[in-house]
């Protein structure tokens, strides 16, 4: 059997390595559109933007590892089409790659605003994006960040860490309220103002000011936020354009089963940021755009195709580092009700627990409290109650 893996970031490289670790000895080819050896993305919005020594970006694969695992890695090779009937992937060079099993792991790209960009307006998704931003930050610009989600918040934090003037511009009245709900969204996003960043909420960006170089952001209603550097962090769009004529079920992601088989195409798997499936523990269809999930999905595919025991589904987990604080989220808070909160951002430690309609904990957000994450997971596995998790004394709000 042979495997073709398209996209060599965390989902793709982890699949290849997991296949080898589980004893798969057939041919494995990885196609990757970037020229860089595969690297990890989380440091791009964190350590890589900090002032001073430039840290090495952790590599997901090196020439040595590729040789050790006998992986045929084709960098700078962009897939442009797929013919599932012939089991062939086409590339921009005109080469065709045939496969017996295909893994689609082409992830996502940063969403842009539907207005003309000008020089000085950036997005942050790739190593080249982060390198360009690092260089731009060294010029000590005034910074505006459009979007106060995880990426925007981390960029704002890095820029404040350099002592720069930073203003976040957010469309929602309460940043992250779509993820955490109003009360916790308000608490978590207070981290920005606590660390001296400006925060404009309920704002709609109309246009960027300047022509040769960005001079600011014009908002509906007439407000102008002056800036020499703008980062747009308004989410990511799945990289499915190359599959448009393939006949695969694509609608906001690649639709796949519990085992990540693409619906109707059993020899094709889709994993990582672009995989859309009904999550067995959450009971809803979702694309989970988190680093840990991409790795878990890769291992699940490798286990399935090598005939190992199916791996148990995990609750989604994401972390975010902002202003020296670590924010961790397990589960999907928007599916539950806020049932318990303790601490605050100002105190440097915070936790919120969400329950389902039966009052069982289904999600948690915590700040600077890694033990709370382990405790939540353990309680969830056991089917424990809110009182089991937070103690009888503190369970009442
Ligand atoms: C700046 C940043 C910081 C992050 N920080 C965190 C964090 O702190 N915690 C967390 O949980 N998650 C974080 N994430 C999210 C996490 O990195 C993603 O969930 C993860 O990278 C998804 O992996 P993936 O392999 O599915 O997709 P991607 O990482 O998007 O990789 C897709 C790969 O496919 C390649 N590709 C695309 N199209 C083609 C094509 N047509 N042909 C060939 N190759 C193609 C791309 O070049 C890319 O290498 C962060 C993401 C970013 C961008």
UniProtKB/TrEMBL annotation:
UniProt-listed Pfam families: Pyr_redox_2 (PF07992), Reductase_C (PF14759)
Instruction: Outline the extent of the FAD/NAD(P)-binding domain.
Output: 3-298
Q: Which InterPro entries match?
A: FAD-oxidoreductase/Apoptosis, FAD/NAD-bd_sf, FAD/NAD-binding_dom, FAD/NAD-linked_Rdtase_dimer_sf, Reductase_C
This protein's cofactor list reads: FAD
Q: Name one GO molecular function term.
A: dioxygenase activity
Keywords attached to this entry? Dioxygenase, FAD, Flavoprotein, Oxidoreductase
Does the entry feature the keyword Oxidoreductase, yes or no? yes
Q: Can you give the residue ranges of the Reductase C-terminal domain?
A: 317-385
An example of a Gene Ontology cellular component annotation for this protein is:
cytoplasm
Protein name per the record: p-cumate dioxygenase
Which species is the source of this protein?
Rhodococcus oxybenzonivorans
């Amino acid at each position: 059997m042979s495997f073709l893996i398209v996209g060599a970031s965390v989902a793709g490289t982890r699949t290849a390595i997991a296949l080898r670790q589980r004893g798969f000895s057939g041919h494995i080819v990885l196609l990757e559109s970037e020229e860089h050896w595969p690297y990890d993305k989380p440091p791009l919005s964190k350590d890589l933007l900090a002032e001073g020594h430039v840290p090495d970006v952790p590599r997901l694969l090196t020439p040595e590892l590729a040789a050790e695992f006998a992986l045929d890695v084709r960098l700078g090779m962009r897939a442009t089409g797929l013919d599932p009937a012939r089991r062939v992937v086409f590339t921009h060079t005109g080469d065709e790659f045939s496969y017996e099993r295909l893994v689609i792991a082409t992830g996502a790209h940063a969403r842009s605003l539907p207005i003309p960009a000008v020089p000085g307006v950036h997005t942050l998704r790739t190593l080249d994006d982060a390198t360009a931003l690092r260089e731009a930050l060294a010029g000590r610009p005034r910074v505006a960040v459009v979007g106060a989600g995880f990426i925007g918040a981390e960029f704002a934090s890095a820029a404040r860490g350099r002592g720069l003037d930073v203003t976040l511009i957010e469309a929602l009245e309460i940043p992250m309220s779509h993820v955490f709900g109003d009360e916790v969204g308000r608490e978590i996003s207070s981290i920005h103002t606590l660390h001296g960043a400006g925060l404009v909420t309920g704002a709609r960006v109309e246009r960027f000011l300047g022509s040769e170089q960005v001079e600011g952001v014009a908002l509906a209603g007439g407000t102008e936020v002056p800036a020499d550097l703008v980062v747009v962090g308004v989410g990511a769009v799945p990289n499915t354009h190359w599959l448009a004529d393939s006949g695969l079920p694509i609608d906001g992601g690649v639709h796949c089963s519990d085992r990540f088989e693409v619906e109707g195409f059993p020899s094709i798997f889709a994993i990582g940021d672009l995989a859309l499936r009904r999550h067995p523990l959450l009971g809803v269809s979702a694309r989970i755009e988190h680093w840990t999930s991409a790795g878990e999905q890769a291992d699940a595919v490798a286990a399935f195709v090598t005939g190992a025991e199916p791996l148990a589904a995990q609750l989604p987990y994401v972390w975010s580092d902002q202003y020296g604080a670590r924010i961790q989220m397990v589960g999907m808070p928007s599916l539950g009700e806020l049932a318990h909160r303790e601490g605050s951002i100002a105190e440097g430690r915070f936790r919120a627990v969400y329950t389902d309609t039966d009052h069982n904990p289904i999600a948690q957000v915590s700040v600077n409290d890694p033990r709370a994450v382990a405790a939540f997971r353990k309680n969830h596995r056991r089917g424990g109650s809110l009182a089991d998790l937070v103690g009888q004394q503190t369970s009442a709000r």
